[in-house]
Specification:
CBS-domain; 3-stranded mixed β-sheet; globular
């Protein structure tokens, strides 16, 4: 059995990411998420990640009576406090960073260029022994 510390983020990250620009209208963002059955989209400027839009962001920020969906863009809804990790980091490092920052997704970058994304579920699938760490994380993260 390979230890989690020996597996790198690069080995299990999702590379085929769907991305949008910050001026993409929210109708297109939602349509893309539905079309590809995904729970998040990365907002980029060229190849650099500048935001993340999740189902939770849409529910919290878009579905408000005073807002008109057609007038909103990714810039209005995205979360900008991104947590990133390098592709050479171990799964242990990724799990600890997620727990410390209380996030379920890490953007994988190299020189600020987006390479992929890794989620808590990716890690649990690969390394079930890290489940305890994520049980702690879930105590502090709202369900999404």
């Amino acid at each position: 059995m390979i230890l989690a510390g020996m597996l790198s983020v690069e080995e299990i990250m999702t590379r085929d990411l769907k991305v949008v620009r910050e001026d993409t209208n929210m109708q297109e963002v939602i349509a893309t998420m539905l079309k590809f059955d995904i729970s998040s989209l990365v907002v980029v400027q060229k190849e650099r990640p500048i935001g993340l839009i999740t189902h939770k962001d849409i529910l919290a920020k878009v579905l408000q009576p005073e807002l008109v969906l057609a007038t909103l863009t990714a810039r209005n809804v995205m979360t900008t406090n991104l947590v990133t990790i390098g592709e050479d980091a171990s799964l242990d490092e990724a799990a600890r960073l997620m727990a410390r920052k209380r996030v379920k997704k890490l953007l994988v970058v190299h020189d600020n260029k987006l390479l992929g994304i890794i989620t808590s579920m990716d890690i649990v699938r690969e390394e079930p022994r890290l489940t305890k760490l994520f049980e702690e994380l879930l105590k502090y993260c709202p369900k999404s």
